[in-house]
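Running this now, will post back.
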Amino acid sequence: FSGAGTILLVTVFTLLRYCNPTVYHRADAAAPLAASRGWLSLTLATSQDEEVRRAGLDGWSLLELYRLNCRILMVIGPPILLVLVPAHYREGGQMDVLGRLDVGALPDHSPLFWAHASMVWVVVLGVGGCLLVAHREFLERRFVWLQTIPSPQATTIMVENIPAELRSDQALQEYFSGHDGLFMRNSDQIVRSAYIVRRTLDLRNAWDVLQELERSRALAWGGAEGVTEASA
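Update: finished.
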């Protein structure tokens, strides 16, 4: 079932690349038809640096998560399929095929229980090793990404829960970089500027009321001038 579903999804994706190249076609490919035939080779030939450049760090992280799942299955899958499954099938007795693979079908004091205990450590060590390798690679790319973020994104932070006495641009900046500030240095290189985000809901409501009064006054002045001209 899984194999048939994979073949179906690959076929549908290939047809979509041919029918809708604007969405499913790489811009640097030679032609939509050629790209639809060779998308798998293009995918396999794409380097991780190119993935980060095209999809960003988040997109690369999602792809790396899929690859991590594949690596984990390649590590723990063969021992389970080649050792536990045949042993369970042999020790399962007269039960059906699926029943033989159940650990509950093993007789008491079966030596396969020791195999299960050993397989637990195989899974723990295999998954842990894959996670450590993936985490180390992610940290390397994460630090590179942090070092290459352009300003002002790289030099901007958001501060919440500001006390009432610091809720002004000047007071907040002096709190961090003033003479007696948090960094104990009076330098513009530490905090270049500070800006307090205002809650303007009440101000917007008052502005709408003011605009409505302005329109009413304009209409009233226009009506008064018309009455004056008619009386003249």
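Residues 62 and 68 are 10 Å apart (CA to CA). More later if anyone needs it.
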